[in-house]
Write a structure and sequence with these properties.
The chain is mainly alpha-helical. It has one domain. Helices cover about 65% and strands about 5% of the residues. The chain has 13 helices and two strands, in the order ααααβαααααβαααα. It has a two-stranded antiparallel ribbon.
Length: about 300
């Protein structure tokens, strides 16, 4: 019922089990962070997001061992292969995330008003470095859940179109718990989830979506000092107030609930879809018969396979 003739979990059951494990990890890491950080919000985020990313990597590696019978390259199988071009894709994602946010913020500055307040001292600079770490590991944790093992198994079970819709909707719904959440915030966050999912499918790896995700949050919260999905915690050195119509500024939720935000997300989708990204590997090549394709894993000079059809 749960496994095939070779003892491997069926993709649908692997998805269900990995989703349950991710939820348990989320709750357990939340309690751990609360115990270690107390009421210190930034310390809580650092402990929570770091422990969550580590727990997810470990848990999904275990699932790959018992569910897929993969004995090596388990981190690569989750979407983090160290194949040629992985650094380039991560930094390309960072560049794209920065450009998208900068374009949207520029539109708000031209059509509305941006009031900047900077507090520059050694203490705040150290806190800003901690914030960047929080955003880096936090975006990794979210990618591991929403584009990593659970997404990849649902992809096998129902196809790319259904998997993108399910996980993009979940990505948006999770953010409804954030301050100032609204319908437009939900809509734009779901759309961002689509962009990140397509980025995974176009490259077969998490490096590009992780870079986009991290840079989007870091540029928005640290560089421009604006809310990140309603959260102001990351505005350490610069804190900015956007003044204008709700459709322009997104209100307290911020840029991700605005029209400029929606426009740049659409632009990002076009770039991710049309750019000639190199395939670093995907489950169809890494698991052709339930085991890692050793040649692809060991021969880092192998030619990349053609990009998969998205089936949207």
């Amino acid at each position: 019922m749960f496994t095939d003739s070779e003892g491997r979990l069926y993709p649908a059951w692997a998805f269900v089990l990995s989703a349950l494990i991710a939820f348990v990890a989320f709750v357990a890491c939340g309690y751990l962070a609360a115990a270690l950080a107390g009421n210190h919000a930034l310390r809580f985020e650092a402990v929570f997001r770091s422990s969550l990313a580590a727990a997810l990597l470990a848990a999904f590696s275990w699932l790959l061992t018992v569910g897929d019978h993969v004995e090596s390259h388990r981190i690569a199988a989750q979407g983090l292969p160290l194949a040629p071009g992985w650094r380039r894709q991560f930094w390309a994602g960072c560049a794209l995330g920065f450009i998208l946010v900068a374009l949207a913020v520029s539109a708000v500055g031209v059509l509305g008003t941006l009031k900047f307040q900077a507090t520059l001292n050694s203490h705040n600079l150290l806190r800003a470095v901690l914030v960047l770490w929080v955003l880096l590991v936090g975006s990794l944790a979210e990618e591991l859940v929403f584009r990593g093992y659970p997404f990849q198994r649902l992809l096998e079970a129902i196809g790319s179109g259904g998997a993108i819709l399910v996980f993009s909707a979940l990505f948006g719904l999770v953010h409804l718990m954030n301050p100032g959440a609204s319908f437009w915030g939900l809509f734009n966050t779901v759309a961002i989830g689509v962009v990140l999912s397509v980025a995974y499918l176009r490259t077969g790896a998490l490096w590009l979506p992780w870079g986009i995700h991290f840079a989007w949050n870091a540029t928005l919260g640290v560089v421009f000092g604006l809310p990140v999905s309603g959260i102001r915690l990351f505005n350490i050195v610069i804190r900015t107030t956007a003044i204008g119509s709700h459709w322009l500024t997104g209100g307290t939720y911020g840029l991700e609930a605005s029209l400029p935000g929606a426009v740049v997300v659409l632009f990002g989708l076009i770039v991710v879809w049309r750019a000639p990204w190199r395939q670093l590997g995907n489950r169809s090549t890494l698991f052709p018969d339930g085991k890692m394709d050793q040649q692809l894993s060991d021969d880092t000079t192998a030619a990349a396979p053609p990009p998969p059809q998205l089936g949207l």
